[in-house]
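Note to self: keep these together.
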Amino acid sequence: MNIKSLLLGSAAALIAVSGARAADAVVVAEPEPAEYVKICDVYGAGYFYIPGTETCLRIGGYIRYDIGGGDIGSFDGARAHDVLNGKDQGTWYKHARFSLKTWTGQETELGTLKTYTETRFNFQNHNGDAPYVNAAGNPSGQPSLNFAWIQLGGLRVGKDESAFDTFIGYAGNVIQDTLVPYGGFDTNVIQYYFDAGNGFSAVVSLEEGSGGGTDGFYGAGTIDSYVPHVVGGVKYTQGWGAITGVVAYDSNYEYVSGKVRADVNVSSAFSLFVMGGFASEGKLNDTSVVLGTVDAGGRGFYKPWGGKWAVWGGGTYKFNEKASFNAQVSYDQWKNLGVAANVAYDLVPGFTVTAEVDYLHAGKFDDTDFSNWTGATKKNSVGGMLRFQRSF
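Structure:
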């Protein structure tokens, strides 16, 4: 082999090696975007991990605007006054609300650790005349802390609504579901929930109540000693619906109150419910020291209806994925009759418009027994409401 051939062969080998190395060159990957929020789907949609922790957080709420008219056209008691003489004005009732909610969840060696909060910010027509206050006794539209509880396993402590209402369920999908009221709501609680996993569940709740007698409608709801109000309930749930019962003991007025409810899923589009309330009166008709010469009118935190018994019934029919019809009829021993019906329509996901018509017949139209607690100014009242709500 001569020198020329050796040089040519070496050059060809170098070119081949260089080509192979060029073909095998390392390709630098594009940087992946940083994952600032890690999704947590253990507790449902919307949760994410708080960075650096094992706690899952969800933030939500709604913005609501109500326009009411007629005699009973405002759920939260918004009323207007004539600017010259201060008299009740026959005009629109307006109410705006922003509700901020938070949920957290975390698994621990003692079970799931959960929290829930809801704070509501309200703006409404000013009203200075009792009894036009909302269900929480808040006439001025001030912010309210409606929920703030901690739950570990089955043990829950904090600010909640009474298990007398939450465990058995509210009174239908109408806006004005308390034309005949079915229970007091805001309270501090110590509760224990038991779920057997076969459709059977139960609750025991020690409660403080709310209101010191100044609201009149529920009597003096807050305990005035170290003895709490006690609520217990059992529920059996299956695909066809549910059967639920709750019993409450009021430590102030020493009466017992209960409710029994049946929910039936007639079809995937049609559901019905019926709920009955019954109670002893204990000391509810005794003169209240807090109220002076005005008694509680036979009403209490766990018996806000008139007389010893009351009944509520209604249902929901879904026309399609966007529209539904909701109705409720309520009646008590004092012959108070309430009828509410609405159509709710989802314009787009998360934005619902509801149009409702309401009727109230006040059986005992007497201010001394607070029969007409809704603020209606006559024996037969008709009103309506248009609600816009953006939930997120």
